[in-house]
Amino acid sequence: MPYYWVKEEVHKCEEPSIKGDVSEYKLRHLSLEELILICKDIDNFILDDLIKDFENCDICLGLEKNREIAAYTCIGLNSFVFNHKKIEIKENEAYLFNMWTFHNFRGRNLAPFLRYKSYEMLNGMGRDTKYSITEYFNKSSIKFKKKLNSEHQRLYIYFELFGRIKKHYLIRTYN
Question: Would you list the domain boundaries of the chain?
Answer without folding.
Answer: 2-173
